[in-house]
Amino acid sequence: MNTRIVYTVLFSLCSLLFLSSCKKGEFQIPEYIDQQFIDLGTHKVASITTGTGQYTVLFENGLGTEMDIWVEPGIFEAIGENAQVIAYNRAGYETSEPGPEPRNMPRLISELDEVINALSQNDKVILVGHSLGGAIIRSYAVNFPEKVEALVFIEGTHEDWLTITQQDEIALVSEIYRENPNRTGTLMEARQFVEIFDYLETLPNLPDVPTVAMASTKLENGITEGYVNGWIAVNKTLGNGLSNFKLITTDKSGHQIHVDEPKLVIDAILELIY
């Protein structure tokens, strides 16, 4: 990817982080949703869960966003009427304690596994991941295929499309710190972006489980048709070797499809359940 697009993507990401920080405090998670801390040994992380059934759906947040991003647009409640649903804040996010560093991919998927072991009512889970969360659930599925029922990627971070240099990482960390130096979890993860992308390069194809990839085709913030065509091609590679793969595109949403079009995400998950 050329430098101009890299900085366009990083600028868009920082803009989303800034907007999410501005909205902080305006939404409260309803009392009927069970909130608890999970002790991971080195630190505790905040989690939410509700619902029951033969399926468990776990939501993995993107960089700089927290678990309430699934609750506010109604996704958590809608899926919770049909299955157990789980979301959590990774180390350093909101009330989750900062965990040991480095916050690299092996540590992120290990802690995800601990959350699943602590909360899941079922042996296998449907994993839904946005942006960096998409990279995390992909890495988890490769390492723990026996624990994965299905996968949903929402604008999932992918190494074949965005090449991050050390200079890009420094720029991203600096911008996040400038916007809000207290975003501990975001900063810890951003400092590992080069290493995270290097890790993604080593991953084989996904295990053969039902998989949905959702990609934005909206032309905004300098995104061109050429960029969109390339992004769609990258998302299609997630289906390599899979017998059940579906690509969903939308030009009505930007990077946060689950915020802009929650019904699109709800329908995709319910289709996997039923």
Provide structural commentary:
The chain is α/β, with parallel strands linked by helices. The chain has a single domain (3-22, 33-273), classed as 3-Layer(aba) Sandwich (Rossmann fold). It has 11 helices and 8 strands. Strands 1-2-4-3-5-6-7-8 form an 8-stranded mixed β-sheet, with helices on both faces. Helix 4 packs across helix 5 (132-143). The protein is globular, with a radius of gyration of 17 Å. The model is unreliable at 1-8 (pLDDT under 50).
Gist of the model:
By secondary structure, the chain is α/β, with parallel strands linked by helices.
Distance between the termini: 39 Å
- CATH fold-type name: Rossmann fold
Mean pLDDT: 92
Mind telling me the C-alpha Rg? 17 Å
In the sheet with the most strands, the strands line up as 1-2-4-3-5-6-7-8
Q: In the CATH hierarchy, what is the architecture at level 2?
A: 3-Layer(aba) Sandwich
Helix content: 40-55%
Order of helices and strands: HEEEHHEHEHEHHHEHEHH
Number of strands: 8
Beta-strand percent range: 15-25%
The CATH first-level class comes to Alpha Beta
CATH superfamily (homologous) name: Alpha/Beta hydrolase fold, catalytic domain
Q: What is the molecular shape?
A: globular
> How many structural domains are formed by the residues?
1
Count every helix, treating DSSP H or I runs of 4 or more residues as helices: 11
Which structural category do the helix and sheet elements fall into?
alpha/beta
The biggest beta sheet is recorded as: 8 strands, mixed
Low-confidence stretches: 1-8
